[in-house]
Amino acid sequence: MSSIAAFGALESGLIFALVAFGVFFSFRILNFPDLTVDGSFPMGAAISAVLIVSGMNPWLATLAAFGGGMLAGIVTALMNVKLKILNLLASILTMIALYSINLRIMGKPNVALLGENTVLSPTDDWSIPYYTSTPIVFGVIVLVVFFILLWFLNSQPGLAMRATGANARMAASQGINTDRMIIIGMAVSNGLVAVAGSLFAQSAGSADITMGVGVIVIGLASVIGGEAVMSTKTIMLALLACIVGSILYRFAIALALNADFIGLKAQDLNLVTAVLVAFAIVAPRLKSNIMARIKA
Amino acid sequence: MIYLENIHVTFNAGTPLETRAVKGIDLTINEGEFVTVIGSNGSGKSTTLNTLSGDISASKGKVLIGDQDVTKWSVSKRAGLISRVFQDPLIGSCENLSIEENMALAWHRGQKFRFVSALNDKNREVFKKQLARLGLGLENRLGDKMGLLSGGQRQAISLLMSSLQPAKILLLDEHTAALDPKTAAFVLDLTNQIIQENKLTTLMVTHSMQQALEVGTRTIMLHEGKIVFDVSGDERKGLTVRDLLDLFKQNQQGQELSDDSLLLS
């Protein structure tokens, strides 16, 4: 693997760490299987692309993407807690609806950002190549988000949110409004995913209506992969595992596609992803089976 | 004071499966009282407790806690007034959270959230002190996941948790039923201690007549959704399980109690 490819893997790994944080919030903290992300990722891209093209400050445009993603998450959560639609189904409905909404936002299937002023534009003046400066910018963003989430999840409302997902009945008996916690958590989750979509569009140079396909699988692969390679005993470790898992996933994909002797090509990406996810899910059990056999 | 006013609860109303679990219960619990509730399966004792906690909403009647009408309040809204220990130790605490995190949740029960760390030196100190009294060495395992503990340990912690914030009433829902006899005795003992220390008004549902007489200041028996008898004070002193059975027979025109589990446990 060339160093450019390695930095590329690091860059997308960092962007998708934000998706992993989002998926961690829905799947792990709230125990809410949420597929909205396949819609909120391109939504974030669409919102910020349109706003950037219209001349808005790229950071404000990214913030707007966060707001849009939050709205998407709130819609899914409301369908679940107020209308009592099964969580998975509610998220699929939002995801489908977002396809139309994203087309409406962009007015066309894609918006190009080439030559526009993005959050990465200031790095043009840096005396290092773009493929190292981009991961630095994204790395700083991921770190900032990491510390905010870490602080939140250990705060009073954050602990209440974790209790909501872990044991809703107990949470309610301790005075926690579980419906509200689900709504807030889903908003944060999809807001983060939308920010990832926004950053992805800004680094790739365009927002595209199809860019959300499979985002949930990548997010899950990152979360599960992270859990497979390291301990997630504390919230800090669990959040770190999201970052580690996301970067590892990108390197695994890059390795698989770059290793000529295997013969895999770019079109095999989704196949490799599916195999990796399946492996990451099975790996912990395989490990404990093997350990048990060694001890026995 | 707690009032249940003419409470009726009907499940699956209007369907062939319609069940009238509670048929007009009137109950006033005075401050400081420790009421034990017995009754066979289907007598409506758990339904009554759940109507008080808000898990089940009454089809008819009113629930008042102090001077507040809480009939339409959700479980979480009532939590500021009610603390509760569940029958199943797995429901009363979060296995994926640590001991101290579980206790921190109870520490904030019914309080407004503030964006500050849920755990701090001050409440950790309180948790340690509380855990130390159990004599199980749990005070050195604050960071351990709740799921690592046994049912009895979890139930004991649930009890400690229920007293971390003041409440108008403590609800105990057969909280020793899932434990082995030795652990059950330990938890019951702890229950008595905590209730006396904090002068808690308590409603305890139990399956055991023996237990219902052993603890508390007042005993109520439910049968088919109604209160059959209600004894307290001098009348209750010295009562035996045999007396309770006679009391039941008297009030039910000679009908015998057919639930063995009430007698055996």
TrEMBL record, chain A:
**One Pfam family, short name:** BPD_transp_2
Recorded GO MF terms: transmembrane transporter activity
GO CC term (a single one): plasma membrane
Signal peptide extent: none
Q: Could you tell me the keywords of this UniProt record?
A: Cell membrane, Membrane, Transmembrane, Transmembrane helix
Q: Where are the transmembrane segments?
A: 6-28, 59-78, 85-105, 130-153, 182-203, 209-230, 237-257, 269-286
Source taxon at top rank = Bacteria
What subcellular locations does the record give? Cell inner membrane
Q: What is its main location?
A: membrane
Q: How does it sit in the membrane?
A: Multi-pass membrane protein
The UniProt entry's coiled-coil ranges are: none
Q: Which PANTHER family match?
A: ABC TRANSPORTER PERMEASE PROTEIN YPHD-RELATED-RELATED, BRANCHED-CHAIN AMINO ACID TRANSPORT SYSTEM, PERMEASE PROTEIN
State the similarity comment. Answer: Belongs to the binding-protein-dependent transport system permease family. AraH/RbsC subfamily.
Name this protein carries in UniProt? ABC transporter permease
Q: Which organism is it from?
A: Leucothrix arctica
Lineage of the organism: Bacteria, Pseudomonadati, Pseudomonadota, Gammaproteobacteria, Thiotrichales
Automatic annotation (TrEMBL), chain B:
Give the PROSITE patterns listed for this entry.
ABC_TRANSPORTER_1, ABC_TRANSPORTER_2
| SUPFAM superfamilies noted in UniProt | P-loop containing nucleoside triphosphate hydrolases
UniProt keywords, alphabetically: ATP-binding, Cell membrane, Membrane, Nucleotide-binding, Transport
Q: Which residues form the ABC transporter domain?
A: 2-249
Which GO MF term does the entry hold, naming one? ATP binding
Query: Could you tell me the membrane topology recorded for this protein?
Result: Peripheral membrane protein
Alphabetized Gene3D superfamilies for the sequence: P-loop containing nucleotide triphosphate hydrolases (3.40.50.300)
Q: Which Gene Ontology CC terms are recorded? A: plasma membrane
Write down the InterPro entries for this protein, in alphabetical order.
Answer: AAA+_ATPase, ABC_transporter-like_ATP-bd, ABC_transporter-like_CS, ABC_transporter_ATP-bind, P-loop_NTPase
Location within or outside the cell: Cell membrane
Chief site of localization: membrane
What the entry lists under PANTHER family is as follows: NITRATE ABC TRANSPORTER ATP-BINDING PROTEIN, TAURINE IMPORT ATP-BINDING PROTEIN-RELATED
Q: Provide the family line.
A: Belongs to the ABC transporter superfamily.
Task: Supply the name of the protein.
Answer: ABC transporter ATP-binding protein
